[in-house]
Amino acid sequence: MVKKLSEEAATAVIDKARGIYEKWESGLSPEERLRHDERVKNFDAAVSELPEEVTINPSIYRFSKMAHTVLNYRGSLMGHVNLRQRQTAKEKLYLVAALASAAPVKSNKIAEVGEASFKEAGGDDLSPFVRTVTVKGTTTGILPYLPTELLTAFKIKKIGEWKPANDVGYVTEAEILGTVNSAFEVGFMATDYAINQHIYKTQPNLKMRLSAFLFSVAEWSVDNDLLDRAGNSIGFLLDKEEGRLSNYYFVGKILQLKPVKIYNENYGHLIKLEIDMTENNSFVIDVFVNNENMKLNQMTIGMMIRGGLWMQGEIAGNL
After folding, report:
1. pLDDT tens column, 45-75
2. Count of other CB atoms within 10 angstroms of residue 151
3. How far is CA 299 from CA 114, 155, 215, 257, in A?
4. Which of 246, 146, 160 is nearest to 200 (CA)?
5. Among candidate residues 181, 208, 191, the one with its CA nearest the CA of residue 283
6. Which long-range contacts (CB under 8 A, 24 or more apart) does 113-122 make?
7. CA distance 273 to 151
8. How, if at all, do strands 111-116 and 184-190 pair?
């Protein structure tokens, strides 16, 4: 049971906090004072200029931002072992992240989303990319990004916001759960949430670009099929152990396959994957897998594969 502070105790806490702040503020030099006042003015103006949020969905809640979750997402791009054990992989990732931070592709008054390919790290100048989120000059997020031209009709049901990792308390990351093409449910990490959160909260029907990174991939067989609660064979199943909205187990068919170079010692494949979501509905998405995360010798067009994936997406427009 949470003990509630009395009004007198709460007032004392607030007064103490105000005293600490005033002491810090009084010690600023004239130059520091000008910079501080400018930051406060810019932030207040930025907040006042953002569209008023009329939430159309009460199911908005907060996740803790867990380090192992972020590491798994980055490992789906760089290779899990590579990222944990090889310094080169970390250096290449942070090099591209630095380039991304200097090249914003989306922005508002508070945040910027940057993007860069692995060309400067010795890789191909095409997807996948790295995206960064910068708030008031500080980079707070580094995640893989896979662009796609495939468009999907999407209706939002839930928003799971990640607790902000910036000093101003501005939410930059969230997972979105909803219905695709009025037929089946999918969750994804919104790579543009730092810029477009007011749209996600106020417009339930959107046109989305959805893609995925594979945590692992192996050849499918009947012996390792996915089953729902009724024991029926399915192609897409939420990974409930991870406790997120965007992590899934899958079974799918390879429609297209293209090798990609991340940097000199690191390679992967771009795949167009078809997943049977229901008896009458399939889902075609662009996915990426790092070769290190493959549990099979080779992949071929037409092959059925299985594994785990992380869904991501961004707004393409209104329906």
Report:
1. 443 343 444 444 547 877 777 778 899 999 9
2. 12
3. 32, 34, 16, 8
4. 160
5. 181
6. 113/191, 113/192, 113/194, 113/195, 115/145, 118/92, 118/261, 118/262, 118/263, 120/95, 120/96, 121/92, 121/95, 121/96, 121/262, 121/263, 122/92, 122/261, 122/263, 122/264
7. 14
8. unpaired
pTM here is 0.80
Residue with tokens 């945590």: 215
The number of residues making up the chain comes to 319
Which residue type is seen at 242?
E
Beta bridge partners of 208: 152, 315
Write out pLDDT tens, residues 114-149: 999 999 999 998 889 999 999 988 898 999 999 999
- Describe the chain by its helix, strand, coil percentages, rounded to 5: 30, 40, 30
Q: How far is CA 292 from CA 67, 80, 83, 165, 216, in A?
A: 21, 8, 11, 30, 9
